[in-house]
Amino acid sequence: MSKKIIAVSLALFLIVTCFVACGKKYETTKINGKDVILVTDENGDPVINDKNQVIALVTDEAGKVQKYANGEDQTRYIDLFNALEVKGVAYGDRYKMNILEGWELGADSKIYKKDTENKCYIDFTKVKEMDEKEPLQTYFDKLDQQNQLLIDGFKEKGYDCAIEKESITVGKYSGWHYTYKITDSDGKIIHYAENYYFAAAKLLYSINYACVDGIGYDETFNFGSYVNANFTYLD
Fold first, then answer.
1. What are phi and psi of 74, to 5 degrees?
2. Long-range pairs of 46-52 with CB within 8 A, sequence gap ≥ 24
């Protein structure tokens, strides 16, 4: 009788173990040019911890997953210095951003519009840490002053520099949206950029869109709509 109980218990254990193993999700991507198998959450997103690391399976040179003595997959942490792409989504420190058709993730974490000499791109940056000695409004007051100098400087050189500012929200966070449009005397765009600023977790962030030298500029592309539909801050 005891042998039957042991056999049944062992069978149940194997069934449970199988379900646990089958419940895990993985996605393969490239990090530093090498294929890496990432552990993902229930939504298929890579798990990124507070140290900006992702969890990956340990594999040998042939790509075979290594096991612990108990049969579990061996895992390791990888520092996420740059964004990585999984199934058309760029993941970085505290954010994920969908990559549109015709765009691609670069090694420097910027999402580049193809065939623009890497001069048209979208990226996400940490601007500064919150400083009690310098309220956030002070930062934007200084930015507005710098922008006015920028306008005056381009005017002296015969260019028109239009800078617009409006309040916006990024998810649940409020912030400011700046648009820069610089044209020559013929009305040709020589530079275009947009910046979405928002504060979260005592940090000021910026989502940026730039067309350096006007390359890649498309007046039908609505950057604000792109951000609202494709950017997620992972708080």
1. -75, 140
2. 46/84, 46/86, 46/91, 48/80, 48/91, 48/93, 48/94, 48/234, 49/77, 51/77, 51/79, 52/79, 52/80, 52/93
The structure's pTM equals: 0.82
What are the mean pLDDT values of the chain's consecutive 10-residue runs (235 residues total)? 45 36 72 86 86 90 91 91 92 93 96 98 95 86 97 96 96 96 96 97 96 97 96 91
Q: With contact defined as beta carbons under 8 Å apart, do 211 and 219 qualify?
A: no
Cβ distance 136 to 206 under 8 Å?
A: no
Q: What is the largest CA-CA distance in the chain?
A: 96
Residue ranges of alpha helices (H) inside 57-135 are none
What long-range pairs does 10-14 form, CB within 8 A, spacing at least 24?
A: none
Domain chopping of the chain, boundaries? 2-81, 121-233
CATH of 121-233, one of 3.30.750, 2.60.40, 3.30.70, 3.40.1000: 3.40.1000
Asked if 167 and 175 touch (Cβ cutoff 8 Å), the reply is yes
- Between CA 190 and CA 194 the distance in angstroms is 14
